[in-house]
Amino acid sequence: MALQLPPPAIPLRAALSIVFPEVRAETEADLRARVAQGRQYTKLEAGYFGITPVPPGAWFYDCADCVFFRSEARTCEIVEGNIEPYGWCPLWVQRQDDPPFSWVARAFGG
C-alpha cells in the first residue's frame, strides 16, 4: 500500500481555521472529500501522536476537540485505528462551536 500523504498546505489551513471560520469549513470539507475518494489516512500518514507534543497548558487542542473525533468509539473519521482523546495530529480541525482561541480561557481556568 502506497503512502497517501495529505497535501503540505492542510496543516497550515487547519491552523488558520482557528481564526478564520471560512477556512475551517473549507478544510473540513476538503479532508472529508479526500477520505471519501479513497481511504482513511494511516496514523503515520497523518502524523498522529498518541499524546499532544505541545507542553501542557500551552495548547488545548487535541483529538477530543477535533471535528473528526468520535468519542464513544475513540475513532476518527479521517485517521484509521483507535484514537486517544489526548492525541494530536496536524490534520486537526476546530469544532464549529469552539470559538477561536478558547483554549486560552481553559488554560487560565476560565
TrEMBL record:
GO terms for molecular function: electron transfer activity. InterPro entries: HIPIP_sf. GO terms for biological process: aerobic electron transport chain. SUPFAM superfamilies: HIPIP (high potential iron protein). Gene3D superfamilies: High potential iron-sulphur protein. This is High potential iron-sulfur proteins family profile domain-containing protein. It comes from marine sediment metagenome. The lineage of its organism: unclassified sequences, metagenomes, ecological metagenomes.
